Amino acid sequence: MDSLTQRFQQANPAVLWLLSGIVFILAPHVYYQSHLLVLFIGCLLFWRLGVELQYIRQPPAWFATLLAISTFIGITYGYQTVFGRDAGVALLITMLCLKLMEMGAPRDFLVAVFLGYFVVITGFLFSQSVIIGLLMTTAVFLLTTSLVSYHRSERKLNSQYKSARLGINLLFQAIPLAILLFFLFPRVPGPLWGLPEQGSSASTGLSSSMAPGQITELAFDNSVAFRVEFENKIPEASQLYWRGPVFTYYDGFMWQELASNSRKFFGSEWVTELPPVPQVKMSEGIKYSVMLEPHNANWLLALDLPTLYPATGYLTQNYELLSDEPVKKLTRYEVTSHLNYKLSPEAPPANRVYRQIPQFVGPKARQLVLELQTKIQADQPYDRQIVDLILNHFRTEPFFYTRTPPAMLDNPIDQFLFEERRGFCEHYASAFVVLMRAAGLPARIVTGYLGGELNTIGNYFIVRQSDAHAWAEVWLENQGWIRVDPTAVIPPGRIEQAQFRDRFRRSAGEGVGSQLWFADSIKRLKFIWDNVNHSWNDWIVGYNPTKQQSFLDALGIKDFSWSSLIFILFGGLALLVLVIAWHLSGHTIRKPNQAHVIFRRFCRKLARKGFRYSPSETAHNFAQRVAEKRSDIAKQVEEIAELYNQVRYARAPAQQSLRVLEQRVRQFRP
Amino acid sequence: MKAQQQVTVIDLENDIDNIKASIDNVVDNASQVILGKRHEIRLALACLLARGHLLIEDLPGVGKTTLAHVLAAILGLQYNRVQFTSDLLPADILGVSVFNRETNGFTFHPGPIFSQVILADEVNRATPKAQSALLEAMEEQQVSIEGATRPLPQPFFVIATQNPFYQVGTFPLPESQLDRFLMKINLGYPNHEAERALFTGRDRREMLSHIKTSMTTEELLSIQSTVKEIHASSDLLDYLQAIIDFTRRSTGYAFGLSPRGGLALLHSAKAWALMDGRDHVLPEDIQTVLPHVATHRLRLSKDASDTGTDSIAEQLLAIPIP
To answer: Into which CATH architecture does domain B2-229 fall?
Structure first.
């Protein structure tokens, strides 16, 4: 029995390269496909490796066929279809692995390799991140090396670096072409591949309604929601309120937006499709661009208060910035916001929804409001005082801020305010708005994100899902809608999780002051990695028609159309091919032999008469073949063949032989 | 010898005509004994003229040994026959030193290898050890026994016959040793008329003993040196190299043709061109000798033999002439 090393040395290196390439191709699918499928594919790959190392035999053809058919049925049954992204990719990758089960003839190997090249694409259907890009590039390198290794006669394992070197050379040679195609190939607006998004891919991040616990869930999600680059100055951390969905209607448990399609539930009087309420800008605008990760909903995050926004977006009455289409791919947009503003200071909101509370909600809360109202001083404005009184209530009473609040199901507002007194931002915002409405002030809930982390390497902000936040807006006389964040009044001592303790106080850019050098370096590495991701998103994934246009503008191609783009593209390709051809012509491509050219002319004349010359046929044999059929031209044909042989192969062909040959061929009329 | 070579250069045309005539004469004489195998006789002669050794592979009884006998007899060469068997020892081929009581020393008794033509009959029935004794002599044209190097007579020509590998009791020659044979030819069954003539004609054994010598040894050596003078143009060498490159690049073969294989191809083509009365090689010369020079030097690779439908010869003859 041979040792494992010996078995590896006897194996065909090309197949080992191919298998490793396929492992790279399949790596992202481990994450995206079902565990059962991954297990099955893993078994197939191990089987193939076992075959190559001669532990087991290749399955018989009937078994492989049976396996293929049952896999097809299994996938069809499991996904209820074979079309669409998930089912289609599942089918492709399993069939690729099944193809490995029948590798006898050279053709099978080549089919497997080229199928592998094709399946590389499927990785990008799920994500277009740097990681996938690196994985797939490695896969292409391994597949190419496998092809090289297959065509090199040397099978020794320790000389495989030569194949790898050629493989990597080929990969690098393809890069200029890839860059050319990337920048110049006409871009179509819309998602890459034009693939319809899966119905099942749920939206991530903020949702279009708010029930207790929803934002709490996000607090554990460390994925990036969006990244922001400020053009000039970076606002203070206390002002980084990223405005998302605004909720106005409360049913006792859940806060909802009132969209136009909810008219049938609430009656037309509730729903307004008014233009944004008037605003007054009180400071200079801050310009920044946001790179928003896809979340499958419409809102675009912007700082309070967005004033200039992209053409594909619009503002609702509540100053939510929405895009026309759900954000299904990485989107970049530029916004200008004014941080000091007055929103609709003139007229109180007419819509009843801002004062609505269901009857059964919060009897104790209403009682509390009545108690607090007794402390109102007549000479001060009522609304300002009641806000302060309620905030003071949160501050002085033992309210705790926690990421793990208890379930409050029966009467969430009263349970929170009087029994548990422990909650996350959504509980505070929700209770605060209910109290405000009970006190007769128009109020609403705003969700979004708070703060963000400054990446000191790339000088941009990273806002994560865990930065999700909810706060309140109240309409005050002469001031309009103002932002009130009831969570911010909780003293640090009553914040249970340390990482939130300085959430509302630390200024932007200052990290949690860590004294440990390795913590700092890890943080630095994280920033560098995030910066790589950000640049990749910015330049590769976010290279859309607009960017292409500005890039071409910079090149001096002002008004391009699809046709001119194609023209440039193929012109560039032709130029590239010409350069390569010119480079190659020096040493490998020979000048065509003059006698041979003349002889081919002669052959073409005969071909018209039905005598086809095969390139491996000698002149004499061809002449004989013709002469047997056509005795009338036998003499001429034989003379030409003789002359041709003379010119090409004789010891010292006479100078005029070539001319005589040319003349005979010219005069030849079969 | 040297003067003779100069003559061939000066008067090549005239020489070639003479050579063609005398070779045709040899072929005619041989064809009277071995019926219907004119092409094979010519190939065997070409091999001899190109100073190569010949391997004849076929079933027993189709006239392999007879062909070898006829060639040796017609060319007037001194020949020995060695029947290879599984118990044959190298000393049986090379010779042995025996103690001589009179001189009080060892006297070398040369083995059958010390002759101009060796008929190594059924060479693949012997063990590799015995085979190697013969094959070394073929390459070196000399034999080293007991510390003394003994040159072999000139011309030295081995005609080996072998049974097909699939027959019982054979030790296949390894590729490295097959490479030392310039050509391998198959005789095949005679055609209908030739076989009828064989049945009605005189006894072949008897004919062998009465065969006339048609060529002197000097003549043979002179023709052998004329073969070298045959011209191969650069266009022809392109074709030759295209064939060699194909065998090396194609995945269909376990290994490509060696430089020695390429030289063998060139020399045999030159000999064939001379026998056709030409002073230069044409692609048809290459194509004629190609199946006999190349196929025993190549082996289809494992992958190719699964799908390969064309034989090696068919694949090689399909290479375009550049």
So the answer is: 3-Layer(aba) Sandwich (3.40)
